[in-house]
Amino acid sequence: MKFPRKQRVIVLTLLYVCAAALMICGVWSTAFPRRFAESRHSFEEAPHLVSGDDDTAILSSSEIWTAGARSLSSTDDATEESAQEAEQQTSEDEGDLQSSLPQLYHVPQIFALNYEEMTKNMRVYIYPNSQTGSMNDSYEYDATNGNNQLGNSEEATTTGFFNILAKGKNHQFLTSDPDEAHLFFLPVSIDALHSALGPDGVGNHLRHYIESIRGNYTFWDRSLGADHFYLASRGYETVNHRNNLELTKNAVQVACSPLAPNQAFYPHKDIVIPHYQNLPASSSSSPRSTLAYINLDLAQSSLLPEAWKSDSDFVVEASNGSPDASVFESSKFCVSLSMRNVVDALRHGCVPVVVSDSIIYDLPFQDALNWHEFSVVIGTEEMADVKSFFTSMSDAKYAKMQYLGLQASKHMEWNDPPAAYDAFHMTMFELWMRRHSVKYSRRSETS
């Protein structure tokens, strides 16, 4: 029985597609893990993410694992055999933890490939200073200003990001040719506007700023701002004007964690980055004596269950300031009701617990990092029973969460000059992943 020509063509096409798929899967199964292992090895150098099969690499964070991660140690009077067994067991425990490293990411192979592509190909065009007059009138970041340094505040973080991007020695991601650019950076400082004009005056200035960009360049109207990005660590009152709506709804906002109460945020396009905090890394390897540290704003005191206040396993602190690093180092879990100090907890080996009844957008780099593996999210109704959850968690589960949290914190460290896989490069990675965002073409005048 002969098939009609059309059916034979379809069958042959399907066979070719299946054969190609099998070849691709074969390449995927061999090449992708190898390339990701290479990427992880480079992260071990700085900032210390290693390949699980690299038995010569020692994590810098191993010095701050608690007894849950390194529960075995030899004693002075132990026999040589028991010491060897303990050493072998410790090595196996560390190997088990390192083998869980890919769980830090949603899809580790895709992350590694996209990151590599970003470092090689990404180009950003920065609009020249000043679009609306002098430097003082335009409130723009200035690459010639030596004061653009990293500092302990959200606004200093945004300024520091610009400083690294614009003043880097090799200008790796910059281009002076707009036609080569994947993204366009608006160097207007929301923080400077907020400080000088107040939250009510920011929107009107941005309206004129975008009008100047639109009038002097053609790039904004090609996408109505969808391939542009700007920095913001504060919220502001917007105005009902086309320029402001396109900036808010189309352009990518790079915001600091935690978001300001009145800060508009669209998760399909906007990015949250960690704030810079000059805290030394923990060096304590002793067991953590506090079950949970609870830090909350003064206005949130009424939300605290009464049982927590009198529980000796909990340390409760109500303040609007930054806690001392020692409380993170001595606690197993760090509870936050306002998203403050979540990244700081990770940096010191304390598993963060976020209390929220709504969707959380404030966690940095959620597109790449699998926060579910190294943090806990509970609702306010679950607060009363949270102690039983803490005490029922196995040592192995806690050690894994703590280990992955420490590795995740390496992605949230700011360095100047930047280091591979640090917060600056992760921010560029998130922007790179948004270069394919939907771009709204302007309608032709004749249509």
From TrEMBL:
One of its GO terms (cellular component) is Golgi membrane. Residues 77-96 have a biased composition (Acidic residues). Its main location: Golgi. It is found in: Golgi apparatus membrane. Residues 119-390 form the Exostosin GT47 domain. One of its GO terms (molecular function) is glycosyltransferase activity. Keywords: Golgi apparatus, Signal-anchor, Transmembrane. It comes from Ceratodon purpureus. This is Exostosin GT47 domain-containing protein. It is a single-pass type II membrane protein. Belongs to the glycosyltransferase 47 family. InterPro entries: Exostosin, Exostosin_GT47. The keyword Transmembrane applies. Pfam families: Exostosin_GT47. Residues 70-98 are annotated as: Disordered.
